[in-house]
Amino acid sequence: MRHINVALFVPHEGCPNQCSFCNQRAISGKKTQVKPSDIDEAVQIALRNPDSKGGEIAFFGGSFTAIKRETMISLLSAAYKYISDGSFRGIRISTRPDAVDEEICGILKSYGVTAVELGAQSLDDDVLRLNKRGHTAQDVVNATKLLQKNGFETGLQMMTGLYGSSDADSIQTAEKIISLSPDTVRIYPTVILENTELCELYRKGDYHPQDVEGAAELCAVLLEMFEEAKIKVIRTGLHSGGDVEGEFVAGAYHPAFKEICESKIYLKKAREFIRTHNIPEGKIEIRVNPKSVSQMTGQKKANIQALSKLGYEAKITADESIEKYKVYILRNETL
């Protein structure tokens, strides 16, 4: 069962740095800071839907544990009463790796926080420095282990295509994240927004962003890596909404970015199966999990067309026995 979460954005609140890529107000669409009364209003709206029971109250954007202590506690206190009465199962926050210590962990636990996501972005110190993150890769390692020790569900967020980054160091970042065994991961290809340093670098010709196609090729590799490591990827690509479209300048933004990535995975799997099993050209049936039929088909039937160019007339069918990112192909001239 899918539970409804209450998401509250805290734009740039508490951040000691102005990262090269950051325009939180555009991403969240929020220009004012969250108040306790905003939490009450959002929760009351959510509670009208019975599926909200069992969900989370989430504070995203900014660096939640770096905001003024009294402000942080006022927000946690306002949310905690809905945890105490059983309306929601817990509170989720996102924060910086260098804004987590034992004292913070104690405060978060006392107010019902169950999940903490860290904006790691990269585990390459040169990339972190170039993008003015203000923390090191070791800070990510230390904070992750501390959160895990204190029993929090721990998530790590990474970015691809940052200034000074390459596909190779993004893959290395993913490998290092896997070695830390977080519960969840988010993957965000870099998007250039107005009023950011990256935008200035781009317009001067000093920064060349990934396009959707290039970012999707890389993120397809990362998705498979995390799937094999049994680490859940809860987001791939910047969410639509807020003022992203209005502030978008360039980069790997697409509202269906994850589906594009997964379509690439399925096309690769189909080609590998055909090659490995020496399936002759002609009509074939490709069986995939019911949740993956659209990804195997591809946007605007792109995968069907790609296989057609190889000499295969493909029909996609749903099969509950097939696992995620797996395919089974039959030669079937009766299709």
Oligomer: single chain
Mind describing the biggest β-sheet? 7 strands, parallel
* Helix content percent band: 40-55%
At CATH's second level, what is the architecture of the largest domain? Alpha-Beta Barrel
Strand content: 15-25%
> What is the overall shape?
globular
Query: Whole-Å distance between the termini?
Result: 35 Å
Biggest sheet: strands side by side, in what order?
Answer: 1-2-3-4-5-6-8
The CATH superfamily of the largest domain turns out to be: Aldolase class I
Number of strands: 12
Class by SSE composition? alpha/beta
Uncertain spans, ≥5 residues at pLDDT below 50? Answer: none
What is the ordering of alpha helices and beta strands?
EHHEHEHEHHEHEEHHEHEHEHHEE
Would you mind describing this structure in some detail?
The structure is a single chain. The protein is an alpha/beta fold and 335 residues long. It folds into two domains: 6-255, TIM Barrel (Alpha-Beta Barrel); 261-331, Hypothetical Protein Ychn, Chain: A, CATH 3.40.1260. It has helices spanning 24-28, 36-46, 69-84, 102-110, 125-130, 137-149, 167-180, 197-204, 212-228, 244-247, 257-276, 293-297, 302-309, and strands at residues 6-9, 56-60, 90-95, 113-121, 153-160, 184-189, 191-193, 232-236, 248-251, 282-288, 312-318, 328-331. The chain has a seven-stranded parallel β-sheet with strand order 1-2-3-4-5-6-8. Strands 11-10-12 form a three-stranded mixed β-sheet. It has a two-stranded antiparallel ribbon with strand order 7-9. α2 (36-46) packs parallel to α3, α7 runs parallel beside α9 (212-228) and α9 crosses α11. The protein is globular. The model has no long low-confidence stretch (mean pLDDT 92).
